[in-house]
Fold these 2 entries.
Entry 1:
Amino acid sequence: NCYYKLGLSATPTREDGETPKIIGAIGQIIEVVTPRDLIERGKIVKPKLEILQAPPPQFEGRTWAAAYKWGIVLNQGRNELITKKALELERMGLQTYIHVTNIQHGEIIATSLDCSFIHGKTPRKIRTSEIEKFAKGETRTLVSDLMGEGVVLPGMDAIILASRIVTGK
């Protein structure tokens, strides 16, 4: 019985036919704001994307898990590219969040950068402390599997999606 309702959604108009459910829950859509609109209004910055060309892995096995292990986690050339890019961003004075989806991968990258790695098994107190240090600028680089590519951390200038492969031209 509230007088006003405010609903925010990343997908107000849906391709799966579920738009009427959103309208039923919060009312008619008044405005759809795109990322381009927000860039033009000065609310967010236009992202700069860079795709690094990693060397092909020395592959062993025939499963997806094996491909991920050798193509992402243990691909030394690829991990060296990630480390090099993170150090370059650090030298530029930027704070960088590196996202991984595999604990071993996070440990490899964090060790090569001599920075913190937090994951689901890291005690909550330590996770909170490391995120706070990053937010305050006390640490320049943070590696984690906890937050995804849409994460917004105070102080974050750049994100490296170390768990992704981009294919095609």
Note: The first strand starts at residue 96 and ends at 99.
Entry 2:
Amino acid sequence: MKKKILIIGKNSFIGSHLFFDLKKKFFVNKISFYKFMHTNKNSIKKYNYIVNCTSNRGYLKKKYDQNNDFDFKIAEKIYDLDIKFIFLSSRKVYKSQKNIKENSKIKPLCNYSKNKLVSEKKLSRLLKKKLLILRISNIIGIHNKKSNRKLHNTFVDIFFSNVKKGVLFRNKKIYKDFLSIYKFCEIIRKLIDKNSYGIYNISVGKPVFLEEITNWLNFYNKKPYRIIDFKSKKSLIKESFYLNNKKLMKKINVKNRLIDLERDCKKISKLFFKKK
């Protein structure tokens, strides 16, 4: 019998990609947050998993306010139902460093990451083993739909915005941890298959230097551009990080290599530049 998945945030970047990927194997429906909150619980209890892909500016920018915590509101509605909840948290709850494990030092610095950590704790108390917390690195991809309600710019948004201006910023010393939206969806699918709960780092698990990722994303750009090697400020270098994903890989046993990330970035590059 197919598992039933409900995605909240039907037009969001992650939500739209998850919908098209997960429906290949599961029964998947998508709904807006506001419609969900007005939906009868009898209509919700048929689902095995709920994943929330929506948020709001108050949660992203301001200090924690339970009224802005959509995940907690969803959890309150389903806490007494036999449904697992997938919470999309952030790697920003950690201190930036190499090889960050799920039990590494927690050090959120901005309101967004502090709010994510508060939500993690509140949801854990409420849902216990019905909760899957995903601490996600930088997701690389293009939105399936045009949206006028973008809450923040991703690394890809900033990259393509600069490329449109004929500029490519590079740096050989700064590295981050990236994951393509395609691999992200595959990982979610596998975690659902395994009836997973608990906390997992979601990442490629290796340092990816900004020079590498920009070259991959720029692969199909035929227009002239100038390269700017911005100087490595110590503060920026200190923000370099990558996540340890061994717990995740042991759980789901999928290929998650740098060469896969390179391939997916070039696919994204092709999708973007062929429209131009």
Note: The longest strand covers residues 84-90.
